[in-house]
Amino acid sequence: MSWTQSDGRLSVELRLRNVNDEALGIDGLALRIMLPDNGVLTSQSSDLKVSLPAGGSERLTLDLTANSPALEQFVALESGAISSLSYELTGQLLRSGKRAMTLNREGFIYPVPGRSGQFR
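RE: above sequence
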């Protein structure tokens, strides 16, 4: 996962990996990313059409909607006022004709040294 902040807008690059032995068709993706102090990032893409080959992967870049606490935390992270941000990602991959797949991940976001507005 990598993050970009530019002009108060955030985007996230996700790497989706298909560990199954058959292709996985994805028609939509909904994400909610919780940060400390009530920071919330969301993204929803209902027109997404991605086919992950068996054993393959794909990188997707999604624009995020951020509330004020979330934007303030990224500004603090970029300025060095804090060294990392914890996050909890939940979401669903939507598949036509099949049940949605649930996503869960927790981790930390760090600034990329020497790259303003870039996080990992």
